[in-house]
Amino acid sequence: MPENILSKRLARWRSTYRNSGLRRFLGWWGGELAALLPERVRDRFVERRGEILIERGVEGGWTLTRVPGLEEADRRALPDDATADDWQGEVALLCERSDVPADLVLILQRRGVLDRHLMLPLAAEDNLAQVIAFEMDRQTPFKPDQVRFDHRVTKRDPVARQIALDILIAPRSVIDSATAPIAAAELPLDAIDILGGDGRRSGYNLLPQEARAARPQREKQLNWLLAAIVLLLAWSAMSLSISNREKVLVEMQADVDKVRVEAHKVAKLDSELVEAVSGANFLTEKKKVYPVAINLIKDLTERLPENTALQRLSVNRGEIQIQGASAEASALIQILQKSPYIESPTLQGAITPDPRTQKEQFMIQAKARLPEGADAAAAET
């Protein structure tokens, strides 16, 4: 559960940063700073990449264009019956046109795609892809598994707590047909996009993350280098701090020897030990009365079926309350009766169906019990 919350929060931050003015400013600023670096350093750490745009011709065939490129040799043509060797050869020729590596981008025709504008609650930003998939049936004549889509946030309204999205949608049949010759030629595709009104890429990518060409990213290398430098500086600071503390401790120890306060320290340590033992006994007694919460959570995680999701788990003075949604809520009582940490599970209130998730909302009340040998099992693990 903490990992899920953290991943959602990170996804929201990444989405916010990707569509923010700060990212555009840092990109411009980084480009200006990179221009001041020596060419050898810039080529090592600043990644520069071009693009090879693959477009379907109006009368058939394919057009391959190197971007940036202004010469006639930066534009190649392939017929519909081109072989895999023909594709690989033309792409290799365009790649050789510059020392800068190029990404392979498939450009779809606009008549084969849909673009939509949506207004969604700000809370949906934690999981935009799933929310958009839910909206697919209402916004298009397709189901989510029949299309590929990508989105970008165009506006945030904190007052109204809404976000505005532009979405590009393409049927999978269209994408599969367009990528068939490229896949047959075993060419690594980096993106699928459309052209905007200015003749440039719109900035979408309909290609799934797992299908994109794998390539090293110099920005990540630079980030790792900076992280290593930060760790080195932190280690140096801590070493200096430890050294200074050791010097201070030596001086303090000399003062302690002079004033002979060792007896006071022993008494203080004895008092702390008594308090620690008392606290440890208190926790031990509590563990004997009630099961360890982590054991209960682990048991529920392993015992409940995959079609069940918990929304709330409360353990208070031996009383357990479980609330969530399941495809078969009535069957959970029999499952929970087999738990060594729960006894007398009963449904509280009526089971209510959720038309949105096609599951049943439930609330179960039970009592906690300590199974035999639970402390020994916990000690072994």
Summarize the structure.
By secondary structure, this protein is of the alpha+beta class. It has eleven helices and 13 strands.
What does this entry look like structurally?
The chain has 381 residues and is an alpha+beta fold. The chain has 3 domains: 47-215, Nucleotidyltransferase, domain 5, CATH 3.30.420; 221-286; 293-380, Gyrase A, domain 2 (2-Layer Sandwich), CATH 3.30.1360. It contains 11 helices and 13 strands. It has a 5-stranded mixed β-sheet, covered by helices on one side. Strands 9, 10, 11, 12 and 13 form a 5-stranded antiparallel β-sheet that branches. The protein has a 3-stranded antiparallel β-sheet with strand order 5-7-6. Strand 1 (50-56) and strand 2 (62-67) form a beta hairpin. The longest helix is centred in the middle third of the chain and has 42 residues, at 218-259. It starts with a helix and ends with a helix. Mean pLDDT is 79; it is low at 374-381.
Q: Could you say which overall geometry the principal axes of the C-alpha atoms support?
A: flat
Which radius of gyration do the C-alpha atoms yield? 31 Å
β-strand percent reads: 15-25%
- Overall strand count: 13
Taking the alpha carbons of the first and last residues, their distance comes to: 22 Å
Strand order of the largest sheet: 3-2-1-4-8
Looking at the overall shape, the CATH architecture of the largest domain is 2-Layer Sandwich
Task: Provide a count of the helices.
Answer: 11
Q: How many structurally independent domains? A: 3
What does the largest sheet look like? 5 strands, mixed
- Which CATH C-level class of the largest domain is it? Alpha Beta
Fraction of residues in helix: 40-55%
SSE class: alpha+beta
Fill in the CATH topology of the largest domain.
Answer: Nucleotidyltransferase, domain 5
Unreliable stretches covering 5 or more consecutive residues: 374-381
Would you list the SSEs in sequence order as H and E?
HHHEEEHEEHEEHEHHHEEHEEEH
Q: What do the pLDDT scores average to?
A: 79
